UniProtKB/TrEMBL annotation:
It is an enzyme of class 2 (transferase). The keyword Transferase applies. Belongs to the phosphate acetyltransferase and butyryltransferase family. It comes from the Bacteria. Its EC number is 2.3.1.8. Pfam families: PTA_PTB. Residues 83-298 form the Phosphate acetyl/butaryl transferase domain. GO terms for molecular function: phosphate acetyltransferase activity. Keywords: Acyltransferase, Transferase. It comes from Candidatus Paenalcaligenes intestinipullorum. Gene3D superfamilies: Isopropylmalate Dehydrogenase (3.40.718.10). This is Phosphate acetyltransferase.
Length: 312
C-alpha cells in the first residue's frame, strides 16, 4: 500500500511513541476490524475490542486474521458497545477511541452521556479532515464537516481552537487559518461573514490562541495567491491557508467530498474536544486514510499527554 509523504511522516511519528491503547467500539465488520488490526500491526497502538465477541471472532476467522493477544469485552449490541468503550476510557484503560461498525451519532451519544458527562471537556467536540490534495503543497485541514451542523459563534471558536491545537500538536507549526464564506467582505446579509470577522477579532484579543486568522475569505482567495492578489487581499493567510473553517457542516462536508471524489484528495480525520482523540472510520475510506487517521490520533494523544506532564 503506497502512502503519501504527508501521511507517512505522521505514521512514523506515531510509531516513535506507540505506548497507547485504543478501544474500538463495535468492530463487527471487516472494514472496521481491519482498521484496528492494521494500526496495531503497524505499531501505532495496541487495541481493546468492544462488541459481540462471537461476531468479532467470526469476522476475523472469515478474513483469516488472528486475534491472539487481543482482549475483547463482550457486549450484546451496538449501544452497549459504545457505552462500554467510553467506560474503558473513563476507567483509564485506553487513551484513544475508534468507531467501529455503528452509527456515528450512537457513538457520540455515549461519548457525551456515559456516566453523566461522558468524555466531555469544556471544549465543544469537532471534526477535522486532514486532506492530502494533489494540487496543494501542504496538508489542508477542513473543519467542521462531521459533528456540528449549524455552529454558533462560540462553537466556531472551539472548532477553530481545536484545529489550531491539532496543527501545533502534530508538529506542523503555527497554522494559517482561513474563515470561509461566500465573499471576502463583511456583509450584514451574510451572517458567516460577521462571524468570521468576530473570530478574527477574538484571536486579536487572545480568546483564540496559537494561529494566524483571516476572514471572511472566499475559497479561491483562501488557497490561491493569484486570486488573493487579484482581489487586493494582503495577509499572511490569504492564498496560503492551511486550515479552512467552513460556515457549517453542509459546506464542510461538500468541500471535503468534492476534493476527495473530483480532485483525488485523501482524507484522514479525527474528532477533537473530548478527553481523548476519536477516530471515525468509514467504509468509503481507503486503508491508507484509515491508517493515517489512526496515526493522527496517536500523535496528538502523545502530544496531549506530554503537555499535561509538563504542566504538572
Amino acid at each position: 500500500m503506497a502512502v503519501s509523504a504527508h501521511y507517512q511522516r505522521l505514521i512514523e511519528l506515531a510509531k516513535k511513541d506507540s505506548g497507547h491503547e485504543c478501544v474500538v467500539a463495535h468492530p463487527c465488520d471487516a472494514v472496521s476490524l481491519e482498521a484496528a488490526l492494521h494500526a496495531r500491526t503497524e505499531g501505532l497502538f495496541d487495541v481493546l475490542l468492544v462488541g459481540p465477541k462471537e461476531r468479532i471472532e467470526e469476522v476475523a476467522a472469515t478474513e483469516g486474521w488472528s486475534l491472539d493477544g487481543i482482549e475483547i469485552i463482550d457486549t450484546p449490541h451496538s449501544h452497549a458497545s459504545a457505552e462500554q468503550a467510553v467506560m474503558a476510557v473513563l476507567d483509564g484503560r485506553a487513551n484513544l477511541l475508534m468507531k467501529g461498525s455503528l452509527h456515528t451519532d450512537e457513538l457520540m451519544h455515549a461519548v457525551l452521556c456515559t456516566r453523566g458527562k461522558g468524555l466531555r471537556t469544556e471544549r465543544r467536540l469537532s471534526h477535522v479532515f486532514l486532506m492530502d490534495v494533489p494540487s496543494y503543497a501542504e496538508l489542508l485541514f477542513i473543519t467542521d464537516a462531521a459533528i456540528n451542523i449549524h455552529p454558533d459563534l462560540c462553537t466556531k471558536a472551539d472548532i477553530v481552537q481545536n484545529a489550531i491545537d491539532l496543527h501545533l500538536g502534530l508538529g506542523l507549526g503555527t497554522p494559517r487559518v482561513a474563515i470561509l464564506s461566500a465573499v471576502e467582505q463583511v456583509m450584514a446579509k451574510i451572517p458567516s461573514t460577521l462571524e468570521a470577522a468576530a473570530l478574527c477579532k477574538m484571536a486579536d484579543r487572545g480568546q483564540i490562541k496559537g494561529g494566524l486568522l483571516d476572514g471572511p475569505l472566499a475559497l479561491d482567495n483562501a488557497i490561491s495567491l493569484q486570486a488573493a492578489q487579484i482581489k487586493g487581499i494582503n495577509s499572511v493567510v490569504a492564498g496560503r491557508a492551511q486550515v479552512l473553517v467552513t460556515p457549517d457542516l453542509e459546506a464542510g462536508n461538500m468541500l471535503a467530498k468534492n476534493l476527495s471524489f473530483l480532485s483525488g484528495a485523501k482524507a484522514a480525520g479525527v474528532v477533537l474536544g473530548a478527553r481523548v482523540p476519536i477516530i471515525l472510520t468509514s467504509r468509503a475510506d481507503s486503508g491508507e486514510t484509515r491508517l493515517a487517521s489512526s496515526a493522527v490520533a496517536a500523535v496528538y494523544a502523545a502530544h496531549v499527554a506530554k503537555s499535561l506532564t509538563t504542566a504538572l
